[in-house]
Amino acid sequence: MQSQNPFKWRHFQSEIILLCVRWYVRYALSYRDLEEMMMERGLHVDHTTIYRWVQHYAPELERRCRPYLKTTSDSWRVDETYIKVKKEWVYLYRAVDAQGKTLDFVLSPTRDGEAARRFFLKTLAAPHTAEPRVINVDKNAAYPKAFNELKARGHLPESCELRQVKYLNNPVEQDHRFIKRLAKPGMGFFSFETARRTLQGYETMNRKGQLQGVDKGDAEAQATFVTQLFGVVA
């Protein structure tokens, strides 16, 4: 699907690199776990090398997957959760539609109207998201502020409704658990940029059944799709 070789000058085969990256952003593993797993297969790959692979290829994985995402519905569930970076909490804004499909995400050092506005704008600009009919949020006062500002500027349709009803956001709150489970083995991130890049991989692999031609729960098809995205013969 991509003509340029993204693995040029790498010391390991592309299949090994993609396998480590895909496993790390899909399963609750630490870098040292993957180092041991590769050792069992007769490959000595230092955990810091795997870390560098994830930092380089997780954002690239997200970029290559985005054009193949199925269109989501017009009912949004928006919420933010906490991620630890350098022993401090930052905020991961996330949204899913009525069927639980991921719309988009933004990592922010702040939890305010500006962060909510940036998140709404990014989600609206994504080619796979439908123009929202309703946006469900919690009682965070930043959401109405951002919503009204974007509506006044014409970024949101006049008919769009903002609903601050907590129970309607249960699907996105449940979906946070997948990201939290993946982040736990690493015991937090050491920089904001490291967190942002790694989360791009987590969120991409969390898009259950959203990739064209890949059914929900079909791990084999997902693995094949990823290798094809990078021009690797499985």
What would your notes on this structure say?
The protein is of the alpha/beta class and 234 residues long. It has 8 helices and 5 strands. It has a 5-stranded mixed sheet with strand order 3-2-1-4-5, sandwiched between helices. The longest helix is centred in the N-terminal third of the chain and has 19 residues, at 47-65. The protein is globular.
In short:
With 234 residues, the chain is α/β, with parallel strands linked by helices. Helix content is 45%, strand content 15%. The longest helix has 19 residues, at 47-65.
C-alpha Rg (nearest Å):
19 Å
Q: How are the strands of the biggest sheet laid out side by side?
A: 3-2-1-4-5
Largest sheet: 5 strands, mixed
Net shape: globular
Amount of helix: 40-55%
End-to-end distance, in Å?
A: 14 Å
What's the helix-strand series?
A: HHHEEEHEHEHHH
Q: Which residues form runs of ≥5 with pLDDT under 50?
A: none
Into which percentage range does the β-strand content fall? 15-25%
Relevant terms:
alpha/beta; five-stranded mixed sheet; 234 residues
List the helices and strands and how they pair.
Layout (H helix, E strand, L loop, with lengths): L13 H13 L4 H10 L6 H19 L9 E11 L2 E10 L4 E7 L4 H13 L8 E4 L4 H11 L8 E4 L5 H14 L8 H14 L13 H11 L5
Parallel strand pairs: 1-4, 4-5
Antiparallel strand pairs: 1-2, 2-3
